[in-house]
Design brief:
globular; about 35% strand; alpha+beta; 5 helices; single chain
Length: about 260
């Protein structure tokens, strides 16, 4: 009687099964999971600090002027700004988190002097609204902002961020001034929002050097249990030029027209 030959396990078949059947199934399940959770939402709290100011640091500036601005900064030292976003919409406002009794007045100063109002953005509609008071909304288009992307990087809150550069020009009665705007954005948080009107980058802005202030992301909350509801601001919508005309009328022509 012949001894039966041992059965050889078809390892090659197992390899092919895993490669052509199991892996595609796994990828399909992963993609299906992502498609079911395609919404991206969260909030960021920013602190801020004033940028070096040549006028205030000048020996020619009166001490009374310096003291006045120092008092204002004391009111705003702990004020935070809140950015909420849900897919293609966002809002940027002064946070209602109050750490001490000075904050109600500090929040008012911050809204008027640091952020120049609250901001609502809708990228689908290419719309941005700046709330300057309880009744007036100034309309603009966020796509007009131009950025130069660089390969310079740094870590912010454990996120790898890339540097982007833009510019801004301010006009007042004493002349025209140009400022370099520097943003650090995190591609791993794929939303195009940031402080104030500064949006349009391929990632969330975690640090922004504006004309007079720098914003720093202190708290980041992604995918909270309760999804934020981003509501459009209510008020009368006017153009930026119309708003400047209103200000010029109030100031008696003190603010020059924009060329």
């Amino acid at each position: 009687m012949k001894t039966p030959k041992p059965i050889k396990f078809p390892f090659k078949f197992l390899f092919l099964f895993r490669r052509y059947i199991l892996i595609p199934i796994f990828l399909f399940q992963t993609l299906n999971c992502l498609s079911q959770n395609k919404d991206i939402y969260g909030s960021v709290y920013y602190t801020n600090s004033s940028n070096p100011n040549e006028v205030l640091n000048s020996e020619k500036t009166k001490q009374s002027v310096k003291a006045h601005f120092n008092r204002i900064n004391e009111y705003m030292i702990d004020v935070k700004f809140k950015l909420e976003f849900f897919n293609q919409t966002s809002s940027f406002t002064v946070s209602n988190k109050l750490d001490n009794g000075l904050k109600p007045k500090g929040g008012l100063f911050a809204d008027k002097l640091i952020s120049n109002g609250s901001y609502y953005s809708d990228l689908n509609k290419n719309l941005q609204l700046r709330k300057v008071d309880e009744e007036i909304l100034v309309k603009s288009q966020p796509s007009k902002l131009k950025w130069t992307l660089t390969q310079e990087t740094k870590k912010i809150n454990n996120y790898l961020c890339y540097k982007a550069i833009s510019s801004a020009t301010n006009k007042n009665s004493s002349g025209e001034y140009s400022f370099e705007i520097i943003a650090w954005y995190a591609p791993k948080i794929p939303v195009s929002f940031g402080p104030k009107q500064f949006i349009g980058l391929p990632g969330l802005i975690l640090e922004l050097k504006d004309t007079h202030y720098t914003f720093y992301a202190a708290e980041i909350e992604l995918f909270p249990k309760e999804k934020p509801v981003i509501k459009i601001f209510k008020g009368k919508i006017i153009t930026e030029e119309k708003y400047r005309e209103r200000i010029r009328e109030m100031m008696g022509g003190f603010i020059p027209s924009k060329n």
